[in-house]
């Protein structure tokens, strides 16, 4: 892959602004596993290898199981995810695929029944944030470092 711009080096203030939102979400009280599921699922949809590698590792460190990470892209086909996690994943998918009709009333209402307004806002912010990071990673060809077994 050819070299592309390094946003952190060239536009550190813009990068810091997004990193500031990252800090907000990290300290907002959102459950760490919920946040990692959001980051992995959006990154799967967007095809961001760098973020998939990073957040799969982060999820493992936070206590997520390898099995659930392996089947996350097929979460509807398993019984591995709680009702709350299913609502989060559905909302994340619709936010990530926003051009395919937006967030449906059914998906939003399902999440609104399970979470208070503040937590729902945090889920939306987390999904929005990872989509921004994915777009930076993909457009600049960020690459994960290969780890030998």
TrEMBL record:
Q: Which residues cross the membrane?
A: none
> What positions does the domain Carboxymuconolactone decarboxylase-like occupy?
12-94
| The protein's name in its UniProt record | Carboxymuconolactone decarboxylase family protein
Q: Which source organism?
A: Mucilaginibacter panaciglaebae
